[in-house]
UniProtKB/TrEMBL annotation:
It comes from Sphingobium cupriresistens LL01. GO terms for molecular function: DNA binding. Residues 43-62 bind DNA. Residues 20-80 form the HTH tetR-type domain. This is TetR family transcriptional regulator. Keywords: DNA-binding. Transmembrane segments: none annotated.
């Protein structure tokens, strides 16, 4: 099979490039639609109206509304796991590596509230579609293994205490970072503090990092 021509940035050009651009445009719009309305509330007609694609083209690329939803989930989880499993942290001291994991996770959740809403919607569906995402468990294992390696280096260096379950650590990090996005409106109204204000956000980010590091410290 002939390869698609590539431009100077290494992207496919011609029909293959246009097809990929259309596919990504559909995913961008569908991500916001599913995040805002969930699987049941989102409409393919509305997604098509907001893209350069027709309804028929969306079905051609993704098969069904459920297929499009799963593709959106897959891309969202792939992106966050790439942040979680950044392999450059092996060059950092274990305490610095852990702080970097927590900070990057906090930042990603804040910058991508649509990811938080997608996760919330999928849990409302009781995880009906997460099992259809190829490689999801393998990507999750890599995240846990990175934390396991950081903890092991920290125990060896005297930074961290022994006996911390890396999956429990991952869940704690996720919970603290997730909450600031998932509950931002109710907390901001109920406690009269805008948790998205830059100074408030920066303080909360530091607190979350400190909380996690303190829990792990020897």
């Amino acid at each position: 099979m002939a390869k698609s021509p590539m431009n100077m940035q290494g992207k496919a050009t011609g029909r293959a490039g246009e097809a990929e651009e259309t596919r990504l445009n559909i995913l961008d719009v569908a991500t916001l639609e599913f995040a805002d309305k969930g699987l049941s509330g989102a409409r393919i007609d509305e997604i098509a109206d907001r893209t350069d694609a027709s309804k028929r083209m969306i079905y051609y690329y993704f098969g069904s509304k459920e297929g499009l939803y799963r593709a959106v989930l897959e891309r969202a989880y792939t992106a966050v796991r790439e942040i979680d499993a950044d392999n450059t942290r092996s060059d950092l001291a274990p305490d610095a590596a852990l702080r970097d994991v927590v900070g990057a996770t906090f930042d990603y959740h804040h910058q991508h509230p649509e990811f938080v809403r997608l996760v919330m919607n999928e849990n409302i569906l009781r995880g009906a579609h997460i099992g259809e995402i190829p490689g999801i468990r393998e990507r999750n294992r890599k995240v846990v293994e990175q934390l396991r390696a950081i903890l092991a280096r920290g125990v060896e260096s005297g930074h961290f205490r022994e006996g911390i379950d890396p999956l429990e650590l991952h869940m704690t990090i996720s919970a603290l970072c997730f909450y600031n996005v998932s509950n931002r409106y109710t907390v901001s109204y109920g406690f009269e503090r805008d948790v998205t204000a830059p100074k408030v956000l920066a303080r909360r980010r530091t607190n979350v990092i400190d909380i996690v590091e303190s829990w792990c410290r020897a």
